[in-house]
Design the sequence.
């Protein structure tokens, strides 16, 4: 069985969000964060999304690059 490398699209699917490129771009444009706000603490996440992000940041390095990509995109 071949494991897929996580992508930004896959992360958006995991978060229950639209995962096509146009939707991802729109989400990023509408949800900018101040530099002192952590990705997992952003006010626009639901409690379930925050929990997923926190747990995966702690437990699963597999998502690290994708989290970094989203974090950089949301912090101008």
Sequence:
């Amino acid at each position: 069985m071949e494991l897929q490398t996580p992508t930004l699209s896959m992360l958006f699917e995991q978060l229950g969000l639209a995962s096509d490129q146009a939707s991802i771009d729109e989400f990023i444009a509408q949800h900018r964060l101040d530099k002192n706000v952590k990705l997992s603490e952003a006010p626009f996440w639901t409690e379930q999304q925050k929990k997923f992000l926190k747990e995966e940041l702690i437990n699963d390095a597999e998502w690290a690059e994708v989290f970094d990509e989203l974090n950089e995109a949301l912090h101008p």
